[in-house]
Structures are given as C-alpha cells and as structure tokens.
Amino acid sequence: MGCNVIRKVAVVGGGPAGIASAKYLLAEKHFEVIDIFEQQASTGGVWNYSNYAPSEELTIPQTNPHQPLEEPKWLSATGTVATPSHPVFATPMYDRLESNIPNFLMRHPDDSSLEEQQLFAGRESVLEYLNRYADDVRYLIRFQTQVYDVRRKSDGDCDRWLVCTRDLKSGKVSERLYDAVVVASGHFSVPVLPDIPGIRAWNVAYPGVITHSKYYRKPDGFKDKNVVVVGNSFSGLDIANQISTVSKHPVWNSERSKKPNFQGSEKWKKEMAEIAEFISPADARRALRFVDGQVVSEVDAVVFCTGYYYSFPFLSSLQPPVVVTGERVEHLYQHIFYIDQPSIAFVGMPFKVIPFRTWEGQAAVIARVWSGRLELPGKQEMRAWESDRIADRGAGRNFHDLSRLEDFRYHNEMVDWALQAMSRVNDRIPPKWSERDASARKDIPEIKKAFVDRGDARHLVRSVEELGFDFQDQSMLKVF
Asked: What's the chain's average pLDDT?
C-alpha cells in the first residue's frame, strides 16, 4: 500500500462536527479504521450541560491561546463529587439556553425530528437530538479518552500520524498510528478576556467580580446586583436578558457595534461604549470608565461575553503552527485542509454559521478527498487561497467569519466540490441551501424577536408561519 493511500482515520472529538465526519467517512466504504476519540462521557460536544463552572480557574486577563489541555472534574451520576463516575468539562452551555437558529435550518438534512420541538429549541432538546443522531456511529467512539498529542512518525518507508491518547478513567496511555486525522474538537475552551487598563489591579481588589460567559449557568447569583455585560453577540444579549430578570436595572451592555435586537423589549438595558479603563480601587469603588467618558460605579459583576481563542494543545508539534495568535487557524485551505500536510483536516472552524449542515458539507469533501475520489489543488494554489482570504478579511478573527449568508454560499460550494466525484449508488451528500432557506436565514433576528415576544407561549411555537412569516411567498424571498 502506498504512503499516500489513506485507510486509517482518527477523529478527535465526538460532538456534532466529529459525528458528521464519521458518517461521511463511513459512507465512502473505503476506510478500514475510523476511531472517534471523545473526552466526555457522551456525545453532544458543547451542548453537554453541567453545573460545573470553575470560574476561579479563569486567568484575568486571558490573552494567550496556548493553554494546556483541560482537566476534568469527576462527578457521579447525581452530579456530586462523591464516588465519581464520569469526567465533566466546563462548556459554555447554560441552563436556560435556547438556540438562536430556527429548528428547520438547524436540523440535519436526514433527520427532521428537531422540527417537532419549539421553533428555537432548548438545550435539552438539541442535546437529545444530537445523541440520537450519533447512534449509528456510537460503536466507533472511545469515550472518556483525551487526545494529548498528534505528531508525525516514521512507519517503515512512510510517515504517519501518531495519535497519543489517555483513558481518563484508568489513566492508561495509548499510541496508535493513523494515515489521517480529523480535528473536530471545537473552539470553545480558552476564553478571550482582554487586557484592559486597570483590570489586573481591579481583579485583585475585587476577586470573583469579573467572569466570562463560559462560566455562566443561571441568573440567580446576580440577584439585586449592578451588572455590566461586555459583548452583544446572540449569547451575550441572551445572558444579559436573563440576568436582567433578577438584577438591578439597567444592565449595562458594553458593545463595539450595534447588533439587531432579537430579545424583544430591552428597557432593562443601557447600551454603553467599550470599556476604556477599570478605575483604580484607590480612586473609586468598583468603577469602570467607558471610551465616551461615562463612568459606572458600585459594579457588582462584570461578565465578559467576548468569545474564545482557537487552541489545539495536542497539535503543538505541527510546523508551521496552526495556532499563533489564536484568532484563527493558520495554514488552512477552505477552512479545512492543513496545507503542508493535507492528511490533517479541520471540521467546525468557521463561526457565525448554521453549523450542522456546514459541518456536513466539509465532511463530505474530506471523505471524498481522502478516499481518492477528489483531488486537492497544488500547495501553491491552496496557499494562494489563504492569502486571498487574508487580503479580503484580514489575518485575524474575521478570517473564519462566514456571516451575511457567506455560510450558505460556502456550504453550496462544498457540495458542488463533493459532487465532482464520480457518483455512486447510495452516495451520501448533504443538500444545498435553497433561496427560501437563505431568506429565512437573513430574517433570523426578526424571527427570534417575534418568538421571544410571545413570552411563555413561545414554547408552543413550532414554525415561522405561526409567527406570521411565510417564506413560500415569493415576495418575501431575497436574492441569494
């Protein structure tokens, strides 16, 4: 067998991206070994919820993406530390989270059951849906197994990938050789918490006041508190809205730019500029100064909803490195293939996307390239793609930003690419997005606002038509 023939594949991560990858690899009927390594005790990835939120472990500020692998907390089935039975990792999932994507767009193409849930499904429904979706590849998953290193190793006349894993329960370390590796471990581990003037001294003087949304679970701890929420992404606004139900008013929302309102009435909120300074405790009591000169004092809590770095400590041997600043994954072609060694591929790096179908489009391409049914362009052309992307979007965080319908165009391009492979009976391929889908995608803020405005009655809403939207009506369709 030649050195370039791929038969054995490791998938790092058993969340939505890893499960999609495994399904498309299996569908090729080409690969001899497909092993999925998942450090948690179940599938679902970031959708797994736990009360475990070790905010005391947060580094303030947090500006370095190069962090070690997370250590788990061992909990019993009842959620206590007594007689621990499974490892738990802190995820950004919070108790009352509802999806910000309508169920008919969020669902996998071949499983419509999510549409039986409320229009913007709650976290429990999404996790149940994902666990069910993983059932047919569950036998491939090695749970409670953490990948701690991936590196090239000589195997006779060929170089392959040595994947080093640790069984989190027994502590046993294992090493296996693979021809290719899918990195589907997500990018919600290392929080971004900027180094704003005065923040270090402020944190020493007022420990526990500053936190990050990764460690938010419920609003109860903010009762009667004066709260500043930094960031106005979907999750940032949702967290601010939840906190407002128990906190003092207004909730001060520090934001860089205005975002569409999807939370209904926001009388509880006061929009503020970026934080310019955490004022010295010697000069004021728990006070912040904003770039427009306004000052807020007697602050009881500051919640940073400022996102996450890309961080892959198990890939530290790669040269050139895939993580430098942590704002993007470097040396990738089409957000997927590591240009210098395309037998490593990433699934799930783009953000501001409709995730599940986007990951399926990426997985379809990977499976066909590695089975030999598709060819990659030469390295020069792949590097040119990355250079063009940088010229258009910059070398920072915007590199993987596929907002404003770019995710739909990107997905359809991935499907077109996958379809270049010679078709076979029972070929697995995700459908393209339609003009109707794109029109609904553009109107998500308005749909979510109408949903939230229903109050508790929103739990009975299953479709956009119930909210007065009709994307079958040609007059509502927008250019895609």
From this structure: 93
| Secondary structure tally for the chain: helices H, strands E | 10, 22
Higher pLDDT, 73 or 353: 353
Tokens representing 284? Answer: 């004021």
- Is residue 348's pLDDT more than 80? yes
pLDDT range class, residue 358, cuts 50, 70, 90: very high
* 182 in Cβ contact with 262 (< 8 Å): no
C-alpha to C-alpha distance for 212 and 192, rounded to whole angstroms: 8
Cα 132–chain centre separation: 20
Q: Rounded distance, CA 152 to CA 119, Å?
A: 46
Tell me the CA distances in angstroms from 191 to 47, 229, 325, 373, one per residue in order: 17, 15, 13, 39
pLDDT at 3 over 90: no
Is residue 471 predicted with pLDDT exceeding 60? yes
DSSP for 22-59 reads: HHHHHHTT--SEEEEEESSSSS-GGG---S---GGG--
Q: What's residue 476's pLDDT?
A: 44
pTM: 0.95
- Give the span between the Cα atoms of 332 and 345, in whole angstroms: 8
- Model confidence at 77, pLDDT cuts 50, 70, 90, reads low
Lateral strand order in the sheet of 275-278: 275-278, 288-290, 295-296
What is the Cα–Cα distance from 287 to 296, expressed in whole angstroms? 6
Q: Is 307 in a helix, a strand, or coil? A: coil
Tokens of 53: 């939120």
Residue tagged 């949304």 (tokens): 213
Q: What's the rounded mean pLDDT across residues 133-159?
A: 95
- Our measurement of the distance from residue 263's CA atom to the centroid of its chain's CA atoms, rounded to an integer in Å, reads 22
Which phi-psi region, left, alpha or beta, contains residue 298 (left: φ > 0; alpha: ψ -120 to 50)?
left
Residue type present at position 185? S
State the Cα–Cα distance between residues 290 and 305, nearest whole angstrom.
Answer: 17
